[in-house]
Hints:
This protein is mainly alpha-helical and 413 residues long. The protein has 15 helices and 5 strands. It folds into 3 domains: 13-74, no CATH class; 85-175, no CATH class; 214-409, no CATH class. A 3-stranded antiparallel sheet has the order 3-4-5. A two-stranded antiparallel sheet has the order 1-2. β1 (105-108) and β2 (111-114) form a beta hairpin. The protein starts with 12 loop residues before the first helix and ends with a helix. This is CCHC-type domain-containing protein.
Amino acid sequence: MFHGGDEDExxxxxxxxxxxxxxxxxxxxxxxxxxxxxxxxxLKDGGPASQWxxxxxxxxxxxxxxxxxxxxxRWPAKTAMVKTQAEKQAExxxxxxxxxxxxxxxxxxxxxxxxxxxxxDKVERLAKAIPDDNNLLVQITRNSMAPSLRALVAHSHxxxxxxCRAVREVDVxxxxxxxxxxxxxxxxxxxxxxxxxxxxxxxxxxxxVLGAAFAKMDLGPRIPQPSFxxxxxxxxxxxxxxxxAARARTDAQKWEIIQRLPAPLPDxxxxxxxxxxxxxxxxxxxxxxTAATEDRPFPLKPGTCAxxxxxxxxxxxxxxxxxxxxxxxxxxxxxxxWRRKVNSIKGAVTRAANQTTxxxxxxxxxxxxxxxxYRARLEEELRPQLEAQLRAQLYAEILAxxxxxxxxxxxxx
Length: 413
């Protein structure tokens, strides 16, 4: 049914009239009045076209030819816009295919095809419409393709026919592999940029972050902080101690942190190389430091014993004391002092464990806090620092891997 509304873009007055004409050609027995009657029956009741027909003078609808003439005046043929060559070139340059489009399927004229095939068909059609008979726009169009697709289409295809055929013949599995490869490379580059930005920042100080090894400490689920009533200073203090002394960690608190540090790695060539890199990184992170602490633990030599096991501080092995050590190659001086310090802390904790005196903490308002609560509170305060340090270490490992590949371990391309 023909509605006849001027604002209806889905309805074509010319198509409606042509449809009637084709039908009349088949129904040769139709007389003029029958054609006019059929036309009237094809109008949407109450619509603009029906109202126009009812108001039409009888002379203008007495014959089919008279009715057609009146119809063409009311709904004249529309002149289609003719694009200029510049507009056609602009349409070609705006027809792009991006990385996110690759590997998907689309329907063209009811047929399902891959996006790069549909794109090749379209740009070839647009190039013919310009027309670009000299193939001047082939390379410009090639350069605008998604990088993964461009890598699979050779430069030698310098005509529209060969270029578009080469695009259509790209294997979709190879295209997806190339797309994944480009995505991995882009992510790696982004990670390296983040790492470079981190390296340009001032080195962390012991009072703000823990050491690189302590960054691997898993604190587990977040521990809710206990409620202490109205807001007030939250730094707990030992009973009858000065504020400065209260801020210092006890041996038990130090040992609690040290126990969570990573154990030494197995003794392998790769781990020995990592050990040397970690030492260099430690000195860069803590410039001027001459001793390790639980806040800045020194790297441990691969193959040695864990901290606080009663090991020889000179070589890191069990079975003898440092004053009887016969190892020809001693540990670095800072690692030796670090192991001695940890063994001393462990001894103090062991001795304190034999005492029965309960240790409680109080805040400034006099509220009692058990030491276990204080440790949980300390973990919560340290968590953001630990997470930031862990991210920095992950980026450092990414950069180290890239440096190893650049020194000949990776591809030779």
